[in-house]
Amino acid sequence: NTPLSEADPDVAKIIEHEKYRQFAELELIASENFTSQAVMEANGSALTNKYSEGLPGARYYGGNQYVDQLELLCQQRALDAFKLDASEWGVNVQPYSGSTANFAALTALLKPFDRLMGLDLPSGGHLTHGYQTDKKKISSSSIYFQSMPYRIDSESGIIDYNRLEENAELYRPQLLICGASAYPRDWDYARLRKIADKHSAYLLCDMAHISGLVAAGEQESPFKFCDVVTTNTHKTLRGPRAGLIFFRRHAGEDKKESLEARVNQAVFPSCQGGPHNNTIAGVAVALKQANTPEFVQYAKQVRANTQAMAARLISYGYRLSAGGSDNHLVLWDLKPLELTGSKIEKVCELVNITLNKNSVCGDKSAITPGGVRIGTSALTSRGFKEADFEAVADFLHATVEIAVELQREAGSRLLKDFMTVAYKSDKVVALQKQV
Ligand code: PLP
Known about the structure:
one-carbon metabolism; SHMT-like_dom; binds ligand 1; alpha/beta
């Protein structure tokens, strides 16, 4: 029982450095959050030692009496957090992450080479929603299934539902996927349901980014309209890194097996081995926390903070994709300033602001993203309010103003030349001190 600092000072030191980085920097990555001490304790517990392939009451290993209790508790909390009735919905809490949850869901719903439609990655969709380029199938969701993406309108930044409907007429998908990694507006689930029904397709929502907001009632609930809902658990939901698959009990009854049987079988044994019980414990704790008035207040604050930051950026004359945000993130279009997302991500890193480059409305590909994605969930967990986010927007404005000057000085569009000038800049050092 030697503590980590003695057993392995190298790893202990790296962890301490990372902890300090998280403390010292302005954390604006839209897919990250700060989970609680209680979640981390559960995640680092003795449950990590236990094998429990199978489901509660039907395991391939002995000694699972407590793990069975834990998994049933986690399932119940997942249903409670999203206000779901156990007679209508079930949930599998074993996926290791959002990506594996999605692949298991596709495995449950489709046969190899069936057709799916998801939001294209440059439009804000996720890799696992069928991503491929003109030249290459990138994700297993496009390698093992056929994919035809739908897109946002390049002017408005809003999903082009008319085009989606037209293309679905031609493509006749077996599965329609909604949900995104970088989409600042809420979804028209009712319209998507109608499109799916026309083609007897399943409708799956991957609510990974917004699941905390859905739990708190701050975004429309996809459960009203979808057959299957997946999520990971560490974004706005503020849990450990894991995944969940919710399935409607009575969907697809025409098929030989129920959706419940197909989802459970797809998770194990089709896609995964033994569940990570320590993580399931962390998820259970996070779901309990998500089902409290304090969490509802948190989610409201996340949205209020996003609105405040968006309004401040717009007041400086900047362009945001889709004109603003309904959720926890904004997409800031830097193309009018002739800057790329990569340059701003790098220069932000130099001044202790952490965010990521992202394709934005009007970008042709994801290779040179024309903007950045900025999220408010992590800093809201640290107590930031609207005025703090206005100050964050002021820092971002100052960073971009410096970047415009650096670009001029570099006299080249290359990131390497831009960074050479940035590393030597006194203005960057001065801004870093202020941040
Ligand atoms: N789905 C969406 C919408 C995401 O944004 C992400 C991650 O960014 C994932 C799935 C993948 O989740 P994970 O990283 O937990 O595998």
